[in-house]
Amino acid sequence: MKRQDITGTAPLADRMRPKTLEEFVGQEHLLGEGRILHRLLEKKHFQSLILWGPPGCGKTTLAHLMVQHTDAHLIFLSAVMAGTKDIREAAEEARRVWIRTQKKTWVFLDEIHRLNKSQQDALLPHVEKGIFYLLGATTENPSFEVIRPLLSRCRVLTLKALEAGHLKTILQRALSDGERGLGLLRAELSQDAEGILLEASGGDARVLLNLLEMAVLTTPPDPDGKRRIAAQSVVDVLERRPAHYDKSGEEHYNLISAFHKSLRGSDPDAALYWMARMLEAGEDPLYVARRLIVAASEDVGLADPFALVQAVNAFQAYQMLGSPEGELMLAQAAVYVALAPKSNSVYTALKKARGSAGATGTEPVPMHLRNAPTQLLKELGYGRYYKYPHDYPEGWVPETYFPSSLAGTVFYEPRPRGWEGKWREYLDRRRQAVQKERASRPKKEEESV
Signal peptide position in this chain (predicted)? Predict the structure, then answer.
């Protein structure tokens, strides 16, 4: 075999791309015997697909292998560069290919989430009529980024980040392959070096192979001609371990969801962990602070009103101090909100009230609750029978403040926890008093209300 100049060829990640489906590693839930993609390819069935998954899991490679396996024509477009003109030209090319060769066409659109609405609209009629079949690839959730009409005409296949076993297979292939890989360089990885590489890759095969190539090429051979890659050699090529995070994408929402659910679940340790993950990845700390404010109201509420005070104070403290000192205030608020007694009764009450307001928005305001700034309005009964609470010893009087059709409606139901627990019996007594007062109200007054 002729020795290659490894340093003068394409990057290792490109050279090691699988050339057949048998070489492809991972995604067994799609490609395994009897699984959806295995069945589609076995029958050479054409269907527009969107491959959704994290970077480096094999979306582009899999798309090319599918085209090869189905013996179809491929048109490759990048959503970053393609416009509506390119889409129209792709449709014309697909028509010509079909007339000339009777071959169907796949249009592969990398980073399909970058297409704007008008470009996606331009795709729609061609996909709908079967002029070509769409193969989209995206790292972003298609339900957020792809218009509904186009999404409804495609099957979304979810790809997973590669697991440690998959990455190890890819690593060993690259080290042993003398034609496309690093086999001629006789590189050997220590166990610690391999572990660091696998961890630093974050499930991304491209990152793994790029780091491996750099570590191998920067390690000189020993007198025996072997390149022994120690852990420090790998650490040296890692400026910073890449955080698996995208502030505008799917992982952003996954992490903030985990953070909020840890707060709601009263786990301060998990809340601190997810918050630290976001901050380490470069998330805006004020965004984290805003989520704390939401949780303090939505999930703690009046069970502990000071949770909201803590969260708002943390937001303001961070504005004054910035990082790193201000992050301590965020951590303090996160721990407080996590440990506080929980109640979503105000959140639930607001949802109920909104629903009721939407359904009964034409109910007139009761006469006794109306303002009467003029003599005419007073003569018409505005404000009549209104009871001014401050005129009563307790500063409260049994009264109905709803339209008559909604009298007795209950939206707010305090939980038996924290501060709310102290108010439950008190509120129940008042509601019973109002009900009793209403039942004994003279008919004439009732009608005026």
Answer: none
